[in-house]
Amino acid sequence: MNMVVCCKQVIDPEAPPASFSIDSAANKVIPPAGIPPVVNPFDEQAVEAALRVKDAIGGKITVISLGVNLTRDVIKKPLSMGADELILLEDEAFEGGDSWSTAYALAMAIKKVGEYDIIFCGRQASDWDAGQVGLGIAEILGIPSVTVAKKAEVINGKARVERVVADGYEIVEVTLPALITITNELGEARYPTLRGIMAAAKKQPIIWKPADIEVESSQIGAAGRRAKLVKLFQPVREGKCEIIEGDDVADTAAKLAMKLRGLKVI
Amino acid sequence: MAEYKGVMVLGEVIDGKLAAIATEILGCGRRLADELKEELSCILMGGEVAKVADEVIAFGADKVYIAEDSLLKDYRTDSYIVVTEKIVQEATPRILLLGQTAVGRDLAPKLAFRLGTSLATDCLELEVDTEAKLLSATRSVYGGNARAIFTSESLPQMATARQKAMSPLERDDSRKGETISVKVEIDPAEIRTNVIEKVKEEAVGIKLEDASIIVSGGRGIGGPEGFKQLEELAKILKGAVGASRPPCDNGWTPTTAQVGLTGKIVAPDLYIAVAISGASQHLAGCSGSKNIVAINRDAEANIFKEACLGVVTDWKQIIPPFTEKVRELMAG
Ligand SMILES: Cc1cc2nc3c(=O)[nH]c(=O)nc-3n(C[C@H](O)[C@H](O)[C@H](O)COP(=O)(O)OP(=O)(O)OC[C@H]3O[C@@H](n4cnc5c(N)ncnc54)[C@H](O)[C@@H]3O)c2cc1C
To answer: Is there a single domain that holds both residue B263 and residue B316?
Structure first.
């Protein structure tokens, strides 16, 4: 199995909400001081999904990351988890893209990788939460896709995928090559082992520039955008919480219940 | 080239019934169409969907495109996309709306790429500038920490709407509309996915999305036993049990109970958040609730910023006497 996993570096989505701030003049998020970026958690689980396939039937895992200022310790994590190769699309020209230009660049990079049976992506990146790039790659490459998967196995040359839906999941079979997006219900991604970390330290990522993947600079990054970001802002929360206190817990509990009765919600 | 005009929505039908989200985007679509002084149309796709066409009209559509085929019985990307692509290419709507559901999440991005246009997913608000006829789509981004407004110059302007973010119209059965049956040749060989089995995992009782009271537990509940206590409280309140992500990831409660950005979107009258810190990704799923009560031992927890009532204590202390008091009130 030749597998490709697309991994994005993002600001830590689990950082305390108070650390989140925006530069409204630039319409950009200010990375929180002292909190290092992470690999998008869903992408990390996409690496895990690929590793499980590799554990079961063998194969090669190539990870591709697009971005600028990619922190080596962060972006090499998939290698330390057990991926075989890391390709970085690291160039100013790739910056400021939207789902379109990002999917296009990644699809072209995957074409250059050549052989692939499964492409794994996270269901969405935890910064823009759009959930479009994976499907965009599939559409550009003309391959089928299954989204929001909590399990992916290869059986008789096809992928058997458990796709999460509102009331449970569907078992879907898809022909290969295919693109599969992974959700957290897959389970935790493995921790890198010491051996994995040492092996990753020795591996150098391969860096591709726009010319390497034969893309025009007008089609990638900010130049290739189709969606225009008009404004980025933080919603205001009113924050008027009444704290209920009583003489003891029984009293507090009774006060809370009466309060809710007063509001006519119970 | 054809002129792009009008607003079109994709109306999901689940188990033969028009989905709530369909009525929501019809409501939104009607408003946008009225502002543009254009028509609102709706696509219905499935094995048997024609019977809800009248309902779609009653909820605001002027025109309903109906595509029925046994190959459309289950949602599959490849078959649904062929049908939608054909209808959209022929009807050339200016605006195309879908719901942010298992179907919308899967279909909308692929369709946008196929049509060569851009898409704003998971929108909270949709407005139209009647001069420029430009849709501005307000999305939740950064896990709910921020909002972003997007526009697109390419047509059709596509968006998916978050569930419960838009209001349906009052159903009006006297409304008139036109139905058009669409014949689309679907080549079974071109459908590259196959649904082998559908596994239902939902807890019995009231559906989380429909419950008017939700008792929701977080990581601080500590295990499945704690959820039993929440279930008891929910039962007395005739509500449902929800959860933040960690209890679902840990298997303390079914994953279908997850509330949040990547779980269920709920908007009950009462949402009791027990031992939930109030991460933005969780609030994304419950901030539409009319009243949020927070029970948390950490007075600094973010959930108190969203709640109207709070108790700062160990949940194990307060839930038993609270459950008893509620039992008394409900009985009396
Ligand atoms: C892309 C992305 C998507 C996500 N989607 C979702 C989603 O859809 N839904 C979701 O919920 N999360 C989601 N998350 C996870 C989210 O960021 C948080 O990690 C999660 O919501 C935290 O859950 P929690 O509040 O239960 O746990 P914690 O943040 O660990 O909070 C536990 C709380 O319990 C309190 N507590 C502990 N013990 C007790 C006690 N005995 N009595 C009273 N209080 C106690 C603590 O004070 C604390 O406030 C997502 C994350 C990412 C990155």
So the answer is: yes
Pick the residue of B21, B74, B138, B150 with the most A CBs within 10 A to test the interface with A by mutation: B150
Cβ contact (<8 Å) for A169 and B199? yes
Bridge partners for A149 per DSSP: A163, A182
Residue B195 in domain: no
Residue labelled with tokens 């006497």: B321
Strand partners, B159: B97, B120
Counting residues of chain B whose pLDDT is more than 70, the rounded percentage is 100
Can you tell me the distance from the alpha carbon of A250 to that of B319, in angstroms, rounded to the nearest whole number? Answer: 10
Which residue in B6, B13, B63, B1 sits closest to B32, CA to CA?
Answer: B6
**pLDDT higher than 90, residue B1:** no
Q: Please report which confidence band the pLDDT of residue B332 belongs to, taking 50, 70 and 90 as the band edges.
A: confident
CA distance B233 to B215: 7
- Same structural domain for residues B12 and B107? yes
CA distance A184 to B102: 15
Rounded to whole angstroms, how far apart are CA atoms B101 and B262? 10
Regarding the beta carbon of B140 and ligand 1, being less than 6 Å apart is answered: no
Burial of B184 (0-12, 13-18, 19+ CB in 10 A): middle
SS3 B164: coil
d(CA B295, CA B315): 6
Nearest alpha carbon, ligand 1 atom 51: B281
Token pair 């024609």 in the structure block, residue: B50
Contact A168 B201 (CB under 8 A): yes
Contacts of B150 in chain A (CB under 8 A): 227-230
Closest chain A C-alpha to B144 CA, distance in angstroms: 9
Range with the poorest average pLDDT among A136-140, B104-108, B206-210: B206-210
Q: Answer yes or no: do B235 and B127 share one domain.
A: no
Q: What is the ipTM of this complex?
A: 0.95
Q: What is the pLDDT of residues A76-112, one digit of tens each?
A: 999 999 999 999 999 999 999 999 999 999 999 999 9
Distance in Å, alpha carbon of B177 to nearest chain A alpha carbon: 31
Query: Which among B321, B271, B278 is positioned nearest to B296, based on CA atoms?
Result: B278
- Exposure letters A211-235 (e unless 16+ CB within 10 A, then b): eebebeeebbbeebbbbebeebeee
Assessment of whether the complete model's pTM goes beyond 0.90: yes
In total, chain B counts a number of residues equal to: 332
Whether B20 and B131 share a structural domain: yes
B276 C-beta closer than 6 A to ligand 1: yes
Residue B275, sorted as left (phi over 0), alpha (psi -120 to 50) or beta, turns out to be left
Task: Out of B158, B190, B222, pick the residue that ends a domain.
Answer: B190
Domain interval for residue B112: 7-190
Determine the Cα–Cα distance for residues B263 and A171; give it in Å rounded to an integer: 19
